[in-house]
Hints:
The structure holds 2 protein chains of 2 kinds. By secondary structure, chain A is of the alpha+beta class.
Amino acid sequence: MIDARGQSCPIPVVMVQDAVKKGNNPSELQVKVDAMVCVENISRYAASQGYTVSTEESDGEYTLTLKK
Amino acid sequence: MAENEVKLTKLAKCAGCGAKVGAGVLAQLLGDMKVLRDPNLLVGFDKSDDASVYKVSDDLALVQTVDFFPPIHDDPYIFGQIAATNALSDVYAMGGEPKLALNIMAVPKDMPSETVHEILRGGYDKAYEAGAIISGGHSILDDEPKYGLAVTGFVHPEKALTNSGAKPGDVLILTKPLGIGILTTAAKVNMTSKEGMDLAVTLMTTLNKSARDVMVKYRVHACTDVTGFSLMGHGLEMAQGSNTELHIRVDDIDLIPEAVEFAKMGILPEGMYRNRNFAESYVDPGEVELAYQDVLYDPQTAGGLLIAVDPGDAEMMFEEMKGKVPSAQMIGTVEEFHGGSRIFLKTGS
């Protein structure tokens, strides 16, 4: 789980990009963020890398699960 | 950069025009305000225009505007230039010439005086280049630095250009490439190439003066500068204000290639999403890929002019613009409104 809460965009999406590169395209990845703009940015990046994304929201925090 | 020097952009919560309050929110906030009616106020807030225009006599009108924002560049001299270029632009967008300006400044109390001086020097140099005099200003203490100008200019009352005069058949011309906001966002995480950042800085410090000087020689029906609300946001205001629709050929727009690449990677400013929320229900995206659309919603700082020119003058004006503006582009046409979408994006030239 990548915890990118408290980071302002575009740092969270860059953290996810680093994790994808380091993990050599892992089949599953989870990330926690606290701003909608980060959800959108990560979703765009994930889609460009062939991941499907599901998002769960609770108390203004979002957990994104990337799968392929 | 020395270690004890401030990294200006780190003091800013949002970058440049991305810090703007959304267009929809503004309209709501101002909706019920009491405003005096005056026939000499030729352009006010009602059409969401770039500046106010007030007729003083039959051959003279005042153009007034104000713009300021937090640092968008770490070099204070560059930041000052960008903020001034952006503020002066609203006068050019009305077809006017800036004459007087006042500094507006917020500075943290521990900011070194050389830094403050450099920001101001950037502003003064751009005002000088524009032929305007900075005659005063106001500064306050604030944790987040901010700089900009309140600008007064002049225009002939019958020649003031608004964003609401576009006519079906007009040709749309844009004068700077798009993608500045994305490049400055990527720069926050040091991803923008040196060439990309140099291009962004050159664009953000190029006055719209030359574009204005060419434009006023032709039959221009509407003009606006493309800034925080993006091409789509400002285009929508033009279409709605003129009761027309815009047909835009995306392949003919100069989209900065590096910005398109960042859009594909999800490196996008928050303002892009705000602009989408405001405008996308009025935009028919056709077959245009998401990343390219995103650049059309990218908030620009000190962006170019979007001009609706009479079709009879379009070719000549376009030719004259080339070489005088950063990037002259003929991007589409104004059409009669048919109900429904206000902006239609097309692929293929």
